[in-house]
Q: What sequence folds into this?
């Protein structure tokens, strides 16, 4: 994968496909490969640029305090470094939180914005859940095992576990096969999740925005009204059979609805 100097760090990214640029921002503890099931479809119409945020994958993992605003600055610096003036921006969860800051701070760089399972400002409930993940990561001394044991049950419905155990196992194997995030880097990244507050930024977002949630997502679906009311040019899509990760739980529906939005705002 190519690496490039972006601002004050070196970032790793993957580029596939052709067409207008589409930047894919990963969620907590993930690297660029987390969008594999989407890039397969998206890359037929777009140049997909999937990134490793600071602290993840093969990007630099400097010490210090991380923030969702900082992640957005990093992505903007990467876009500039590889010659992308304007792109469609898409992210899930932490990726969505980062996308909000990117669209608010760099409106001229964002053609459309896709916010999946996002939230405007961390509340006590979300912070408590993330603190639990931090405790597990430290206790297990393994971010991949914490993801599988701690984060997966928040991402998928009980029905998926019951009906597709082999698929859950395949996703677990996928997580174990990626570059291991150090526990201290996960703590820094998850601290950024807990500190996220883009409420005052929503009104600055000018790009057409798709907001999606899984109906059974206990972490973020209750932010739907706040996001749709705060972002003027936005539309809401609910995936009725999904939790926090529709991109895995119902790949065909997720790809169809998100690609439809992206295609509508291309050209």
A:
């Amino acid at each position: 994968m190519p690496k490039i100097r972006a601002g004050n760090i070196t970032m790793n990214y993957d580029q596939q496909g052709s067409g207008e640029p589409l930047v894919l921002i990963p969620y907590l503890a993930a690297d660029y490969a987390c969008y594999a099931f989407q890039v397969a479809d998206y890359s037929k119409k777009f140049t997909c640029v999937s990134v490793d945020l600071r602290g993840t994958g093969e990007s630099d993992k400097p010490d210090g305090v991380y923030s969702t605003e900082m992640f957005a600055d990093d992505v903007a610096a990467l876009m500039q470094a590889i010659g992308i003036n304007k792109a469609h921006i898409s992210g899930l969860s932490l990726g969505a939180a980062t996308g909000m800051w990117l669209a608010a701070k760099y409106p001229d760089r964002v053609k459309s914005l896709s916010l999946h399972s996002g939230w405007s400002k961390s509340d006590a409930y979300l912070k408590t859940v993330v603190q639990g993940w931090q405790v597990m990561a430290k206790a297990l001394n393994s971010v991949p095992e914490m993801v599988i044991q701690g984060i997966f049950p928040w991402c998928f419905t009980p029905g998926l576990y019951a009906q597709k155990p082999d698929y859950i196992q395949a996703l677990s194997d996928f997580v174990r096969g990626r570059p291991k995030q150090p526990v201290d880097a996960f703590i820094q990244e998850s601290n950024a999740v807990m500190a996220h507050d883009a409420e005052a930024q929503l009104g600055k977002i000018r790009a057409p925005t798709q907001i999606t949630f899984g109906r059974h997502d206990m972490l973020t679906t209750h932010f739907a009204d706040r996001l749709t009311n705060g972002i003027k040019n936005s539309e809401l899509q609910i995936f009725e059979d999904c939790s926090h990760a529709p991109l895995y739980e119902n790949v065909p529906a997720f790809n169809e609805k998100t690609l439809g939005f992206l295609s509508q705002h291309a050209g």
